[in-house]
Amino acid sequence: MSRAWRYLFLKIITDIAMINIAFVAVFLAKFKTINFLPVFMIYYKPLLFITVLWLVLLNLAGLYKLQHDKVGRRDNIFSVSFGAFSAAFFTYVFVVFLYREAVYSKEIVILGSFTALVLINISRYLIWKLFQLNYDH
């Protein structure tokens, strides 16, 4: 597998993980529990939607292109991911008003979105540094 494909695969996998970690962590912090089963039973459908939406919007923003050296400049990544975050956030707000079964869903979506934005950017930076170190040696 080429370096660009490994980089792309790692970005997608870590983005999926960071999105899910962000929303589950906010839910667990909100209800001050460490029992994961109720979280999964209540939020697995919306979390699947949230994950797919984030991936689509990050892709549309250009963060999954194979030319990572040109597109993935460090000074541009945050602004592009913030644009994708904004689009996802407004979509969530709209959908949350339709999905009333989950308790405190609006608060979880807002805090989870901000947490996901931070975690995705941290993971992107760490992946970028890892590939820079491996490329230099």
How does this structure look, described?
This protein has 137 residues and is mostly helical. It has helices at residues 3-31, 36-60, 68-71, 74-98, 105-136. Helix 1 runs antiparallel to helix 5 (105-136) and helix 4 packs antiparallel against helix 5. The chain starts with a helix and ends with a helix.
Keywords:
mainly alpha, single chain, 84% helix, 5 helices, 137 residues
Number of strands: 0
Termini, distance in Å?
Answer: 18 Å
Beta-strand fraction estimate: under 5%
**SSE pattern:** HHHHH
Largest sheet geometry: none
- Identify the overall geometry: globular
- DSSP summary: helix tally: 5
Taking all Cα atoms into account, the compactness measure Rg is 16 Å
Mean pLDDT: 76
**Helical amount:** over 70%
Unreliable sequence segments: 68-72
Would you tell me the structural class of the helices and strands? mainly alpha
